[in-house]
Amino acid sequence: MNRSDLIIKLAEQTPNLQAKDVELGVRIIIEQLATTIANGNRVEVRGFGSFGLNYRKPRNGRNPKTGEKIAISAKYHPHFKPGKALKELRRQEAK
After folding, report:
1. Does the keyword DNA-binding apply (predicted)?
2. Are 38 and 16 spatial neighbours (Cβ–Cβ below 8 Å)?
3. Is the whole model's pTM more than 0.70, yes or no?
């Protein structure tokens, strides 16, 4: 599901709200999540999971095309950890 699918689904489930209001709400929530994570803070949605940043140490790598060694600098990358309720729901659907 992408952002536009989410907006359509939410608009269908809330007929008292206009689609543009639903779109604004989704946009604000996603922007706030992104800003919070980019600032190095963690975001937790109970029953769903948590978003945060993981640190990757600098390391040596190889250019796959030439085989040349290259230095890969340290960086932070976004990470999602599913919550207990989401894990259990996924297990039930897998059965």
Report:
1. yes
2. no
3. yes
